[in-house]
C-alpha cells in the first residue's frame, strides 16, 4: 500500500511517499521519498512563525513540491482520460469545491494552473494529512490540497494528529530512501512519550487497544482493508502550563541576539561553552522540579534569562561572547534537568517499559545524551527519531496514516466525517 503524507502545520511544507506491507504478520515500511521545504528563513525576520505568511508559502510550495516528489519517485501513473471511470479532471474537481475556494485559497488555487501533471493518476492508495494541532491557516492549505487530490484520484484521505506523527516517527529505524524495507522499532507497553517541540511539551502514556505487549506483535497493523485497525491509546499525563520548551529555546535565543529558530543556535553555543570550559556566572531556576506532578513551566526560566541579560549587558547594550556561551549552557542544563526529572517521575508512576522522545527539540544532543542515561538506568529502551526527522516532516505523517491511526474519511459522505483544521487538537481526544 502506498501512502502520500502531507504536512503544513507550521513553517515546513512537507510531502512524503511510503510503501507499507505485512510480512508474516509484521508491519514493514519502505520510504520512497520525503521532501521538506523550510520557510524558516522567511519567518526569521519576524522572530517566529507568521501565520498568514506560512499560509501563502504553503500555497505556493505544495504543487511544485508534489511535482518534484512524483518525478523523483518514479511513480507517475497513467494519464487519466475523460473515459476513465469515476475519475474527474483537475478542472472539474476544483470547480466542485465551490466558488469560495479560489478566494479562500488564492495561492494554492493559482498554483493549480501548473498542476496538469496531477491528471496522471499515480499508484497511490491513500493520503495522510495533518489536521492539527498547528496554525489553522497553515493547516487548511495542506487539508485542501489533500481534499483536491483525494477527489481527483478517488482515494481516501486520512486525518493525522501531528503529535502522533512525532511519536510514530521515532519508531522508524531509518529515513533512508534507498528502497530498503524496514520493520518498526519495538515498543513495549505501557510506553511513555515525551513530546518536545515549538508548540508542545507533553508526557503521553501509550497503551495498545489490542492489549498486545509489543508493537511488532500487532499483526493487524495497516490491514485497514480487512477491517482490522491498529490503534494506540494516548493519555496526556503531564504538560506545560505556559511556554513550550522549543518556544523557550527560541525566546532565549532571541534575547541573546540569535536567529530563529533558536534551538540549534543555543545548542551550538552551549557546546562551545562546554569545550572551552566556560561556566555561567548566573544560576537559572529549575522550574517545577518539586511540584510533585508531571507538569512543566518554562516562562519563569525565560524571564530569569531576561533579567540576567539586562543585568549583564554592557553600557553599549551588548553581551560578551563568554557570557552568552555560559548562559546558553546554563539554560540547556536547566531545561535538561527539568525534562529529565519529569520523565523519570513519569516512568516510575506508570511503570513504563519503553521511552519515546519526539518533536523538534529532540534533535538536541545534550538532551539525547541525558535521556539515554536515564533509559540505561531504568533498563528500558529509548526510541529517538533519527536527527533528520526530529523536526517537522511528512514521513511521520504518512506513517501515522498507514498505521491507520486516524479514520479514513468517507468521501461519498463528507459531511459525516468533516475534515477541518484543528489548531488545538489534543492527543487522545478521539479515543
Ligand atoms: O517539532 P518542530 O519541528 O515544530 C513544531 O511542531 O513546533 O519543533 C521546532 C522547535 C523549535 O522551537 C526549534 O528551536 C527546536 O524545535 N529545536 C531545537 C533544536 N533543533 C530544533 N531545540 C533545541 N536544540 C536543538 N538542537
Ligand atoms: Zn512538530
Characteristic key phrases:
431 residues; alpha/beta; Nucleotidyltransferase, domain 5; 2 domains; six-stranded mixed beta sheet; 13 strands; 38% helix; 18% strand; binds 5'-O-[(R)-(carboxyoxy)(hydroxy)phosphoryl]adenosine; binds zinc ion
Molecular structure report:
It is a single chain. This protein is an alpha/beta fold. 38% of the residues lie in helices and 18% in strands. The protein has helices at residues 40-44, 51-73, 90-96, 100-104, 106-111, 136-153, 162-169, 245-255, 263-275, 299-312, 321-350, 365-378, 395-402; strands at 2-7, 12-23, 26-38, 78-79, 120-121, 126-132, 157-161, 181-183, 191-196, 201-208, 232-239, 354-358, 382-383. The strands form three sheets. Strands 7-6-1-2-3-8 form a six-stranded mixed β-sheet, sandwiched between helices. A five-stranded mixed β-sheet has the order 11-10-9-12-13, with helices on both faces. Strands 4-5 form a two-stranded antiparallel sheet. The longest helix is centred in the C-terminal third of the chain and has 30 residues, at 321-350.
Order the strands across the largest sheet as they lie in space: 7-6-1-2-3-8
Number of strands: 13
Strand content: 15-25%
Order of helices and strands: EEEHHEHHHEEHEHEEEEHHHHEHEH
CATH fold-level name of the largest domain: Nucleotidyltransferase, domain 5
List the ligand species. Answer: 5'-O-[(R)-(carboxyoxy)(hydroxy)phosphoryl]adenosine, zinc ion
> At the fourth CATH level, what is the homologous superfamily of the largest domain?
ATPase, nucleotide binding domain
| Arithmetic mean pLDDT | 88
Amino acid at each position: 500500500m502506498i501512502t502520500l503524507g502531507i504536512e503544513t502545520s507550521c513553517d515546513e511544507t512537507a510531502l512524503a511517499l511510503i510503501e507499507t506491507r505485512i510480512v508474516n504478520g509484521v508491519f514493514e515500511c519502505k520510504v520512497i521519498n520525503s521532501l521538506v521545504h523550510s520557510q524558516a528563513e522567511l519567518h526569521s525576520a519576524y522572530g517566529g512563525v507568521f501565520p498568514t505568511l506560512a499560509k501563502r508559502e504553503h500555497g505556493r510550495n505544495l504543487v511544485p513540491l508534489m511535482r518534484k516528489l512524483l518525478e523523483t519517485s518514479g511513480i507517475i501513473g497513467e494519464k487519466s482520460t475523460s473515459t476513465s471511470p469515476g475519475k474527474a479532471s483537475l478542472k472539474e474537481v476544483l470547480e466542485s469545491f465551490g466558488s469560495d475556494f479560489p478566494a479562500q485559497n488564492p495561492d494554492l488555487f493559482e498554483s493549480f494552473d501548473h498542476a496538469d501533471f496531477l491528471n496522471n493518476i499515480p499508484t497511490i492508495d491513500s493520503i495522510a494529512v495533518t489536521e492539527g494541532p498547528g496554525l489553522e491557516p497553515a493547516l487548511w492549505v495542506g487539508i485542501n490540497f489533500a481534499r483536491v487530490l483525494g477527489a481527483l484520484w478517488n482515494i481516501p484521505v486520512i486525518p493525522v494528529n501531528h503529535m502522533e506523527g512525532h511519536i510514530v516517527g521515532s519508531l522508524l529505524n531509518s529515513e533512508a530512501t534507498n528502497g530498503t524495507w524496514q520493520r518498526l522499532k519495538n515498543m513495549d507497553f505501557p510506553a511513555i512519550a515525551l513530546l518536545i517541540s515549538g508548540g508542545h511539551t507533553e508526557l503521553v502514556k501509550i497503551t495498545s487497544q489490542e492489549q498486545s505487549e509489543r508493537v511488532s506483535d500487532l499483526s493487524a497493523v495497516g490491514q485497514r482493508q480487512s477491517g482490522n485497525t491498529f490503534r494506540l491509546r494516548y493519555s496526556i499525563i503531564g504538560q506545560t502550563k505556559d511556554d513550550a520548551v522549543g518556544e523557550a529555546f527560541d525566546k532565549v535565543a532571541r534575547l541573546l541576539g540569535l536567529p530563529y529558530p533558536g534551538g540549534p543556535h543555543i545548542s551550538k553555543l552551549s557546546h562551545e561553552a562546554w569545550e572551552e570550559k566556560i561556566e555561567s556566572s548566573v544560576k537559572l531556576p529549575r522550574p517545577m522540579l518539586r511540584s510533585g506532578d508531571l507538569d512543566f513551566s518554562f516562562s519563569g526560566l525565560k524571564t530569569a534569562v531576561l533579567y540576567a541579560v539586562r543585568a549583564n549587558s554592557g553600557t553599549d547594550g551588548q553581551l560578551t561572547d563568554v557570557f552568552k556561551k555560559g548562559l546558553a549552557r546554563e539554560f540547556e542544563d536547566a531545561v535538561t534537568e527539568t525534562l529529565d526529572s519529569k520523565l523519570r517521575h513519569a516512568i516510575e508512576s506508570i511503570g513504563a517499559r519503553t521511552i519515546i522522545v519526539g518533536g523538534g527539540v529532540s534533535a538536541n544532543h545534550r538532551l539525547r545524551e541525558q535521556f539515554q542515561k536515564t533509559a540505561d538506568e531504568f533498563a528500558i529502551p529509548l526510541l529517538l527519531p533519527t536527527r533528520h526527522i526530529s523536526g517537522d516532516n511528512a514521513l511521520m505523517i504518512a506513517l501515522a496514516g498507514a498505521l491507520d491511526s486516524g479514520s479514513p474519511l468517507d468521501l461519498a459522505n463528507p459531511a459525516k466525517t468533516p475534515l477541518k483544521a484543528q489548531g488545538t487538537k489534543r492527543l487522545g481526544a478521539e479515543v
